[in-house]
Amino acid sequence: MRNASPEGSRRACPERSRRVYLDHAAATPVLPEVVEEMIPYLSRNFGNPSSLHDFGQAPRKAVGEARARVSRLINAEPEEIFFTSCGTEANNFALKSVAARLREQDKGKHIITSSIEHHSVVNSAKALEKSGFEVTYLPVDKSGFVDPRAVKEAIKKGTILISVMHANNEVGTVEPIREIAGVAKEAGIYFHSDAVSTAGTIPVDVKELGVDLMSLAADQFYGPKGAGALFIKKGTRIIPFLHGGIQEDGKRAGTENVPGIVGMGKAAEIVLQNMSPWNERITSLRDRLIAGLKEKVDHIYLNGHPTVRLPGNVSVCVEFVEGESMLLSLNMEGIAAASGSSCTSHALKASHVLLALGVDPALAQGSLLFSLGKGNTEEDINHVLEKFPPIVDRLRQMSPLYRKK
Amino acid sequence: MRNASPEGSRRACPERSRRVYLDHAAATPVLPEVVEEMIPYLSRNFGNPSSLHDFGQAPRKAVGEARARVSRLINAEPEEIFFTSCGTEANNFALKSVAARLREQDKGKHIITSSIEHHSVVNSAKALEKSGFEVTYLPVDKSGFVDPRAVKEAIKKGTILISVMHANNEVGTVEPIREIAGVAKEAGIYFHSDAVSTAGTIPVDVKELGVDLMSLAADQFYGPKGAGALFIKKGTRIIPFLHGGIQEDGKRAGTENVPGIVGMGKAAEIVLQNMSPWNERITSLRDRLIAGLKEKVDHIYLNGHPTVRLPGNVSVCVEFVEGESMLLSLNMEGIAAASGSSCTSHALKASHVLLALGVDPALAQGSLLFSLGKGNTEEDINHVLEKFPPIVDRLRQMSPLYRKK
Questions:
Q1: How far is CA A159 from the centre of its chain?
Q2: Would the CB atoms of B120 and A254 count as touching at under 8 Å?
Q3: ipTM of the assembly?
């Protein structure tokens, strides 16, 4: 799928007939090959993978194949992949189940994470604080980088887990995970990384990065919703997250979402093969969009680091305008973008990520995220660069705060 | 889908060309109408329901419609339905999140459940014991009934939750939930019921039953894997199960599995409309199978209650034979059945349910579960009644324990 096709009422509305999807951080289109591979597991291969009879065989084999494919995406072993229902579950699993296990063993109650993690990490950490853990939220610099030395300094007796995301989902900054993992390893502390924004998007190698746990989500790399995974390095001490049957080696019970898992595996296989050429194109479009926005809109600021960022991430703050107003105006022009994380898009609070980067709270209200994917074209970028500047002008005309400098 | 069609290598193997699926307790075929309704949410409507732009609208609306459909299945309000990834997650959610909330409020640490619950309840309860809760596992009588008076007697100061399943997934016994819920209500204690085997199978009305929390799974009623729900009555004190974004009212964060949820909603709508005629047929086939087995096989015993049981459940113990041997021999004749719960089918331990019913451990090794569904026919039953007795004879000939009485 390149652009989602215009349909229904859109056809009667020529000025909205072009639809440009630039919200891949919220959801990626599912590849047609992925859907095709899933459908038999919604129909003739409906059996339960745990069943000993023939109906269980095809689903069981398919889950095993998907596990191998996902493991190859991040250079893990198949038995180190534990399927979950989403990236959020994988993050909850990593934090809560390691914390519970090490508490049982009286290893300590201190966790280190960053101040720009996804809400599924931040709020899991907060829940752990409520149940007696202590959490250090490390600051970041203005590009969004976590300093490995700050991680080292935060370690104390009783530190049991360090969790720092591989790349930030809002501003796109790619963190120095290898260095941070090295600090953790040296201190003998488990290291988890939320790789939901990177796995399937940029090269991820758990061995080279040196992580003990890593979270993935299929819907970030052209796979289906409802499928995620937690990489757990062999030997990592962890209690089950879902208690029940024997699925996922007893660590994540529940009948497997076979079609979702199959789709995740197929998507992993395809993105692994195509990552390099796709990213070359996406990065070039990203840089064109950034350059064009800077040229055509004044008082616009790129969030994060200019180059050490996700290939498709164009996160900006636009002064004197509200993010949501821009979003809705762009939508009227057929352009789908986001303001902050999709998980909080109805909450309308200033992004904790932007505030942690030191962005002024007023400016943070004018945040906008264009996230590009493999289906985007030069024409999409031209369309944004044509439609967006007049939107900003119009909204600023209505803004009492705006005065042309 | 009636019987799964024979395909591939099966075609070359005429004696196996008939395939009779009698393992609906492990997985039900997904209705074609359900698959059809899901597919658009795997393709053009791939957007994130939380997105404010057009791509978020169709998925958001579809999730809302599914929530309403699922609520109607159990006579709940839409805002009382919280989607999960499976029944196991719903059971973990109910037990762990209520326990955590009431512990925070110092309400107590005692939980009552039965000794025949699904592993997702039993093992969640055991995990809670490890973290300081006390759990009473109530016995059942030889039919598998939990006695409401025993529930009442087990209540003490500090009891915060009672969890008893609506019907047992292995032996099919339907519990007196209304009476047990009444006991809980009188004592001011939350009542949860695992209705994974009943919701979508027999009439379930949360208001009439008087439950505070109830678990459901789509793959038990011709919906997809990867979709379940927890009913949480308005006002019930509970902490989130997955921490993160704002989805599911903040109680179960994570991007929604939109196709799965849509499929669950469609399946709920269809089964609600057809439950009565389907069950009439299924019950009649069940009773024919039970009568036929008793007639044709000696030393065979029906587990559970003769009439107060799930419409499709035929759970038996066959003396002097191993369950798994019967299962594999039946499979050679194209018949799919189960021995114990599918969640433990590779574990090969005697079922905790049968042992709780007082079945002799040796006899419990010979357990077999035929679970019928809407696609089964008289011919299916005839096929089993033709093929099964000689299988038992043959296996008994090989058994050193067997001596004809």
A1: 26
A2: yes
A3: 0.94
